[in-house]
């Protein structure tokens, strides 16, 4: 499995960036420990090296401030002189809260640590050991969250402010322009300073000097106030509520509740925090006309109407209501932030692409970032926006494989920018890869059947005896009920089996399913037959899942595809029988792909209309080929495709696969590669048998 090769590469990058105590984001550009980087890095480690993951967070929390603040940089004494600004500039020793034995900055970053700590616990085979670590960490995490709710929560409504763009982690995001512009540099006396970053990286990809001056101005103000929060609050011109920061805090509040539960600790206070932040975010940061969450300028008391990826982050924190989430998805999946299947558009760029000042290569002003996309992927999954989630997952894997483990990427061409061998790009890539592996192990375990159907079992009895309905009536009613069930109970590819079971439509469907026993098939035209068999297949899967009480995967039932049957026009059909019957149609390859086998790896379930079924069938195939079931890496001369193609190797010969991919893939480079390699070697991706619920 070649993806594994890249995982090895990613692990090597983390090894290179590991200094014995923690992992630096990048050896040359960021040679110290960064706050949220370490949490993302720990998530990657948690997949294969618990000790490192634990050590990563331990070393960071060792430098926590007395008042609970977790600094955004912990400096490595042995590595000073390579970054700006360093301790000589921050002078945090003037604060009564800074730690004695550590050199740190005087600001914080998005608090993703509780979330990461829970991941370490969940992913580690050594639960006892991690539990000991959680006991150590829990009070420190609570102290950090309490610091936010006590010191950064002026209206006591759970909206936590940040006081420096670096605290957002998205330093020069266009979101901060309107606030920073108010700082009039001509009125400022700033100390001399020399940047180091712009000597290492092309300045075109980094913040401007004007930005740095404002960053430095704010640090000067903090020093003047000896890092006393209340004093800073009254003087600081940059007091903003960031939707990303608050969403990450929400995700961590949630994780902290789970950690408290694991340790048997009280979590009522944390629950309160979670609820107030989520409620205020929905009420104050959301804009329903645009369908996005905005940052909020606390001083001006108004939303900052700038659309960036941070505005979708409430999906990650589980903060968005269902209707808000649907609007977020709509905006996110538009030309502004890359639509699924859009040509030359990778993942979710950091800023609305239709804006005049959108930049393809400048830092947080447009390019694609892996950590942001990784969080959005988790958020989409959480809200069950399966199709978008899968598409995103695919591009997150694709970018480092094709273009290298860069800091950020061009959303149009994929080109890598910023520093090479960047730690969180590597660690989050590893995390996603292990997600794949998990479903592989599920596949291995599904040999154990919970339920067996050994003899043929017909499950569509005709309760009222001889049908009095005409074929046209039966066909019409079958179509009507199928369409209704699929439209009402399938959202973004996930099937609400429970609701279907309870629905009146399903009862009516069972009745008409019985009538199929006497449906005269010769009455149907060829196109109608095509739609009928695909719809019937998909509906039979739903019916079998419900009748056989499938819990996690159709693989629990031995004989699911071969022994459970419907009688149609007097003949018994299993799902396999329908599959072979479909091979009589001229576009058999597309039909086989578009069947929904009740699994995560299937295309999203949709109704196939009898008048012109091919349009919808093509849509399903396009979704399938656009999802993570097909990965094409021309630079690596690699094509990875779903195992499904392997099962039907008699119809999917190498050339056939190539032809199908060519007619659906849009990316020019991928097309050229497929044209030049008519029969490339295919690597099969394992099939995810988890139920599509
Ligand atoms: C300032 C380390 C950090 C990330 C930030 C990213 C960048 C620093 C810089 O690098 O910021 O904190 O010098 O530009 O913006 O998100 O944590 O990778």
Verbal overview:
The mean pLDDT is 94. Helix 1 (2-17) packs across helix 17. Strand 19 and strand 20 (638-642) form a beta hairpin. The longest helix is centred in the first third of the chain and has 25 residues, at 127-151. The strands form eight sheets. Strands 3-4-7-8 form a four-stranded antiparallel β-sheet. With 693 residues, it is α+β, with helices and mostly antiparallel strands. It is elongated. It has 27 helices and 21 strands. Residues 25, 30, 34, 36-37, 72, 166, 169, 171, 197 line the site of (2R)-2-(alpha-D-glucopyranosyloxy)-3-hydroxypropanoic acid.
Strand % is 5-15%
Helix/strand class: alpha+beta
Task: Let me know the average pLDDT.
Answer: 94
Radius of gyration using CA atoms only: 28 Å
Number of strands: 21
How does the overall form come out from the CA principal axes? elongated
Name the poorly predicted regions.
none
Termini Cα gap = 28 Å
Strand order of the largest sheet: 3-4-7-8
Query: Which small compounds were modeled alongside the protein?
Result: (2R)-2-(alpha-D-glucopyranosyloxy)-3-hydroxypropanoic acid
The main β sheet shows up as:
4 strands, antiparallel
Helix content: 40-55%
